[in-house]
Amino acid sequence: MTTTSSSSKHKPRRRQPQKAKTPVSDSDSMPQPRAHATSLESIEIVPRTPIGSRTPRRGNAGWSPDEAGHAEEVELSLLGEEERRRAASDLTLEEEQAYLAQADGKKSFSARDKRAIVLLIILYLIQGFPLGLALGSIPFILREHLSYSEIAVFSLAGYPYSLKLLWSPIVDSKFFPSIGRRKSWIIPMQIIIGTIMLAMSYNAEELMNNPGDHLYTLSAAFTSLVFFSATQDIAVDGWALTLLSEENLSFASTCQTIGLNTGYLMSYTVFLALNSEDFAKRWGVPRLTLGTYLFFCAMMSFGVTVWLLFIKEDKESTEEDISVKAVYTTMWQICRLRHVQILLVVHLLAKIGWQANDAVTQLKMVEKGLGREDLAVTVLIDFPFQIVGGWLAGKWSRGDKPLRAWIYAFWPRLALTLLFTLMVYWFPKPPISTSFFVLLVTATIAQSFAGTIQFGGISAFHTRISDPVVGGTYMTLLNTFTNLGGTLPRYFVLKGVDLFSVATCEIKEAGLSVKAHECVSEHGKSACADLGGECVTERDGYYIVSAICLGFGVLSVIFFLIPTARKLQAVPVSKWRIYS
Fold first, then answer.
1. Do 323 and 383 touch, CB atoms closer than 8 A?
2. 512-515 and 534-539 beta bridge pairing
3. Which terminus has fewer CB within 10 Å in the chain: N or C?
4. 541-571 pLDDT, tens per residue?
5. DSSP 8-state code for residue 133
């Protein structure tokens, strides 16, 4: 904070009058065109009069003070830089700074918006903790003990997050007015999430040391965590619409990106690295156990819940009356539209081409010797590129062809899927060379970048076609099918890897050869070694499943997805609407 002299406190400082300048020609004084898109482009502006001929600023005849101020704001935004400064020459220093900032469109956040942004980021952060565990780090830990078919059972834990549309109308309509529409759900959900994590923290090591005996207990526990996190997400998304002021409402998605991704990365890459014994020995840090991390997450959830008790929810959000039946009826009306039905089929098929890559490739690399800490570093390096990809996706998806970027990104994603499959096939024996690790990081960044471009393109298309009268329901419906296209095939892909795999435990001394799907895990290999045998993989089902997915993906892209997407893109917006 800067300080001023005592003399400056008695009288505001004013700008000194500018000295007369040499007259310039008309061509020199003409404002130069500016290549900036503004919100004024959509309205018609009456040509302004020169500054000198206007009525003095503090007394516009026939205008109310509010109208006059608004007119000055519009006119000031049309002035050149030097004209703005001349217009502000008779103001105090403080007034001038506010005046010029307003002209440049640099509106500062109010204290209320700043508090709202911090609150939203923390609430989304709480969601990211269980999601990062259930969808990220836990499957990697289980791979050391379970077959792919058993991991497929655990993968069902991620389904509730893709199906939250089914109960979102209930969350939006049922609440306690004395607590608040959103807090009535957020507070109990976070208490339940914290309680489950706290209970699991005392038994985590036993559950993870023998996951085969506790597979269904683990699956049920994490499915519950994801379900309650998804329910909390519905309430937080709705609260964001009233927490932030209208002019800063666009920052709700920014809060979600920062909070959710941070929580997810902490539970996935950071925890995976700190949980690794090799990482702990290399850097001389204590190993972070799952029980300790779950206890930390539980305390975070309880702490944020106590904080919420002292935050008052706006009355406006509790006075709206939403009918559950009306929302479900609206969903059905949207699904009856022919173009929507075709788009939903596109969503269900669009991600099949790289399903084997998304579900199995990283597990296979870890199986072949890629360290957890190396995988964590790869994902951390990739994170900033996702942010850049999101910005470029928004830029490339403008105009009347928002699916253009989504269509073009299919080919690099399919090509990179083939590259990853070949990298698994020719994966070097540990330790991994620097050149191979660089190739892995580069391919991961490229794959993630293409995925982010596709996500931005399809999101822009959803925004364009959604009926504004029922925009929330429309967007949630489309996003649900987008998520299902990625989560629904995963169970069958993991099952398929074991189905097509042929592995045996060969005990040479006894002359025995026993088929064992467990040979894909470290636990199965150790069990075979205890019998004096050695696991031999005669056929790896990963390559067969990857080939099936990739082949289906190429054919569907050529003959269905791209032609259909171009037709849907050309459909008039009015055809997607049910009310407006």
1. no
2. unpaired
3. N
4. 999 999 999 999 999 999 999 999 999 988 8
5. I
Hey, what are 204's tokens?
């985590």
Do 267 and 133 touch, CB atoms closer than 8 A?
yes
Amino acid present at 481:
F
**Cα 486-487-490 angle, rounded to 5 deg:** 100
Q: Are 408 and 350 in contact (CB under 8 A)?
A: no
Nearest to 172 by CA among 231, 254, 246: 231
Residue 63, sorted as left (phi over 0), alpha (psi -120 to 50) or beta, turns out to be beta
Which of these, 320, 16, 302, lies nearest to 173 by C-alpha position?
320
CA 23 to each of CA 53, 83, 144, 262: distance values in angstroms, whole numbers, following the listed order: 19, 15, 81, 57
Is 134 within 8 Å of 158 (Cβ atoms)? Answer: yes
| Helices H / strands E in the chain, number of each | 29, 3
Burial, 213: exposed, middle or buried (Cβ in 10 Å; 0-12, 13-18, 19+)?
Answer: exposed
pLDDT tens-digit profile of 84-137? 455 445 545 455 454 444 444 445 668 888 888 899 999 999 999 999 999 888
Instruction: Look at residues 385, 349, 378, 344 and name the one whose alpha carbon lies nearest to residue 361.
Output: 378
Please tell me the distance from the alpha carbon of residue 239 to that of residue 232, in angstroms, as a whole number. 11
505 CA to centre of own chain:
43
φ, ψ at 507 (rounded to 5°): -105, 95
Q: What is the pTM of this model?
A: 0.70
